[in-house]
Design a protein that fits this description.
Blueprint lengths: L4 E2 L3 E3 L13 H5 L13 H4 L11 E9 L4 E11 L5 E17 L4 E2 L4 E2 L8 E17 L4 E14 L3 E15 L4 E7 L4 E8 L7 H6 L9 E4 L2 E12 L3 E12 L8 E3 L2 E13 L3 E13 L3 E14 L2 E8 L11 E9 L1
Parallel strand pairs: 2-13
Antiparallel strand pairs: 1-12, 3-4, 3-21, 4-5, 5-8, 6-7, 8-9, 9-10, 10-11, 10-12, 11-14, 12-13, 14-15, 15-17, 16-17, 17-18, 18-19, 19-20, 20-21
Amino acid sequence: MIPVFTFAQATQAKYGNDFLTTGSGARALGMGSAHAALTSDVTSAYWNVAGLAEVKTPQIMYMHSERFSGIVGYDYGAAALPLKSNNGVVSVSFFRQGVDNIANTLNAWDRERDQPKGNVQDYITRFSAADMAFLFSYATQKTDQLSYGGSAKIIRQKLGPFAEAWGYSLDVGAKYIADFANFGITIHDITTMQKMWDVNEAAFGDYEAQFDSLGATLPTGQNEFVLPSVKLGAAKIFPIGSDFLLSAAADVDLLFENRRAYYINLGRMSIEPHVGSEISYKDVIAFRAGVTDFITDPVSGFSVSPTLGLGLKLSSFVLDYGFTSFAGASSDLGFTHRISFRFDI
């Protein structure tokens, strides 16, 4: 059977790219995702692309994270390469969030007898629902204090054989290192994310009658757009003696989708704070803590999610661990563990 794809008018998507809010790297998670003014490695392509300009040697990174008691898997990989011809750095990043091994029972039901078919397992297939993103980034050091850059972003979402989407947009960022603090700004989807969904009607088989009996219709494809969002950050690094460094950071995410779950809202704009800190010893071992997910709702009221983290650097290898969702309202959905591994070539 030849797939038939349908297409509809564009609508604004709320939470359209929220699968990317997990971010990149376990260091940031341990610091409550306050990273726009602090980031300076290959993960900068997500947090603030301008931070890539501080990468001096080629870097590669891989990260794995699980949420909702392991139901949702999240994987991230990236590579950064300084360019010899100028002060620029290029990077490629890949993100995937997915739920795998989902049972498709559409063909397992006998509609005439209104009960499961015999040998029902023979009629059940499995599929994955996955959200993916690709970032192609470039950043340069304009002066000793100012750096900036941009990322071309491609989104690929797939709901088994039933639906798929492609999207594209541009992220930009800048970072300024002053004598008293670091400052960063990132604008995600500055061009507005354009996302095009297609629905494969053939994948639903001969089930249009069942949809009709439920007063529903087969889903159709549509064109979505995701509004830009802004991330502002400030950070300060305090030397303590000759062996310790204390880093403190705070970010504010500004979203314009009329979300109502966050603690601070101004009209259609919601404001999400992130606060974090890190203390490191001889650039070998680091301990981190932070708070994120400032949420309010009529049932549980106001809550925040604390975060913890640990980092270890051995020669060219950096291992980071982050832990969150162990308190507050989000703890009801299970703990979040994140492990990332970086190699500096």
